[in-house]
Amino acid sequence: MNVKVNERWKHVMKTAQHDSVIENILFSSDELERFYRIQNKQASPVYEIAFCGHFSAGKSTILNELIGENILPVSPIPTSANIIRIQNGALKLEAKMAEETGPRIFKNEIPWNRVREWGRNGQDIEHLRVYVPLPWLSKTAVISDTPGVDSTDPTHGDVTVDQLYTTDMVVYVMDYNHVQSETNLHFLKQLTDERKPVMIVINQIDKHSENELTLDAFKSSIRKTFLSWKIKFQDIFLLSMKQSDNPMNEWPRFQNELKSLMYYNDHLIEDAAKRLNIGFYERVRKRIIEDIDHIIEEYNGEILEIRSSPDELKTFEDTLERYQQALEFQNRIQEDYQRKQEKLFKNIVLFPHKIRELTKVWLESEGKSRKPGIWFMKKKWQVERDKQTDVLITELNDQIQTQLAFHIKKYFINDVDLHYIKDVDAFQKKVYDTNIIIDESLLTSFRKKGPVSDAYLFHFTDQITTHIVSEWKKQAEDLINEVLDHSRIENEVHIVSLQNQLDSYNHLRSLYNEIEDRKSIYYRDLEQIESILDDLKSPTDYYRLIDDIRNRAVDYKEKPEKLNLIDDGNPAIEKPTEIFPDELIESDYDVAFTNKRIKQFSDLLKLEKPGTFLEDERNQLHSQVNRHINQEFVISLFGAFSSGKSSFANALIGNDLLPVSPQPATASISEIRKSDELHQHGTIVVQFKTKAELEDELHEAGKLLYETLTIEGLKKWDSTRGNQKKTIHQSTLDYVSILQRGLEKNAEMLEREIKCSIDDLGLYAADEQVACLVERLTVFYDCDLTEKGITLIDTPGVNSIHSRHTRTALKQLNQSDAIFF
């Protein structure tokens, strides 16, 4: 909901530079809250670095190591439900409970079990603040520990996002195996859009194995993904809190740089405050643009309800625009003519210095020719005077042509709308033939007796200029009147025609007016926001300044005090209750009765004629019955990407069959079963997608990207053009790009089924440009597991950067007898 600034906020906004403008903008309630918090923070400036990331990635562990004591809650389950702020000062805990007026304060001690318990309570706690005497943590520095962004408790992510509104820098912590999760990438993209400087920490680097993927390849893949998502960051740090001596561990560099930023933060506070304001207004601008889009989408729905299409509204808008132009046609032509010709006539110069001098000589010779004298002397003067007259008239006519006639004719040929003139060629010939040529009689008619002074010369040339301009004005007005006369009748007919067309769109006129009225309010706000952003010029060297400060050495002599952390007897983490009883109760199972019922069910399915109604469900039941009869059992491995599904499958098989990587490796369904008469051990059958299946995928992707996508159209598709809303669905955009590249190389594989060797498994299972076209991989492999009739299904990991993986994995669940999660 958007609301005007009420009295509650005016006292805050009066402190802002643009308070008079802000009071007229329709802000949402969330935006007002954010603005209030930014202003409150800037009243007491601090530089705040927030640690965030997905839950249990090691944020609290890293902070505890940084502080030197186990102050913050640590657990493999989501524990921090509140923002816990750490500031420099005498040892103290401040806990503000929602139902209490003042905070609970514990001085000279930190009852850390209570802190952990309160840290998990996200409803009753307003804030937790821990003061620790740390010499590298300046008085204006704050470190915040936030809940996980993808915790099972959705309020955790909300708390974290809310905190970032007033955070100056973010340290984003990720588990080594889940760097390229879609959750992480969306969150980092949001931080980039918010102009937040980000330091990326990849924790648990001790999980890395050079046998699976080289460290250089791992780093390169991450940077490539961040570049694709347009994610900006200051640096990437590889950490291991478990193995401090791990050669890949960059803990010393990380802690030194972070402490430098906290120690010298006073150099950053001013620019950081400005960037918070810029980020706020840019966010409002983005919201306004989205609201304008939503208005159009909302009315498109209403247009469809009255059996009109968006194209019909566009036609109506075009017709209305042409109608308005037709109504203004006469005035527009006349106003354009007056504006341009008046400027031409006003600024015309027909007597530059050279012609003025010729005119002066001619006037003087005219006076001399009238004096009495010898006859042959007068004749000589007459010859000389005729020459001077010819030169003057020639120069003056040339000047008229270049400075006046040329521009008038050019205007009528190029600028005037002649589409109502029936014979354009005849009219243009008339324009070309229009001319005014002066002769001696014109000059003589303005010649007066008297000496040729400068004043006289100015008056004479001014009279000639006025006369010539007047004559050309008459000619030009005759031409423009001819245009108007010809167009008047035709234009009136056109107006009537357009009016009739508009009458047929009466059902859209009111909607159109509503759209324009509502959009105008947002455009007004947008204009004001743009004005504010123009004034708030972003500090261009901010990131460079951060890099300079984080590489400084921290110069402090004090040592951190030994903290008095007490155990008050309250358990920090509750023990999990037993999920399974000590003894499993075996139930009686009658094999003969089961087989009898299965046969009855199978016979019933055979009686039902195949059809489109519930066909998928019917086929699934057939498949389950056949698996029971043939003593087959399907187990699907399902879970997050890089959680170890393929490694687990390899362990069950007893061989390193499937590709393994900390990146999303399994890109298609891989089915492992025992060999049969048609497929010997080590054979792979690759079933590629049909064109219909791929067209369906592109249709769904197109909805998210606001485009119509087809296999044929994908050949000329450009991922960089079009609606900015594509960035909201970056994973879909990436997938379509991969499909485009895959089809360029392997389009002929669609609809096909091929057999190949087990050596080619990595190509079809893990290479995304090939696997995106694969429907299913069947690996015929004999081992203890498959010999028992068990078929093992390895699915792509969910929540990876490839959204297709999640859809593919979920589809497989319905076709399984058991799931290993």
UniProtKB/TrEMBL annotation:
Keywords tagged on the record: Coiled coil, GTP-binding, Hydrolase, Membrane, Nucleotide-binding
Main location: membrane
SUPFAM superfamilies assigned: P-loop containing nucleoside triphosphate hydrolases
GO terms for cellular component: membrane
Gene3D superfamilies for this protein: P-loop containing nucleotide triphosphate hydrolases
UniProt entry tagged with the keyword Phosphoprotein: no
Origin species: Salisediminibacterium beveridgei
Top-level division of the source organism's lineage: Bacteria
Residue ranges annotated for the Dynamin N-terminal domain, each copy included: 49-205, 635-821
Name of the protein described by the UniProt record: Uncharacterized protein ypbR
A Gene Ontology molecular function term of the record: GTP binding
Keyword Coiled coil listed: yes
Localisation per UniProt entry: Membrane
Coiled-coil regions, chain positions: 313-340
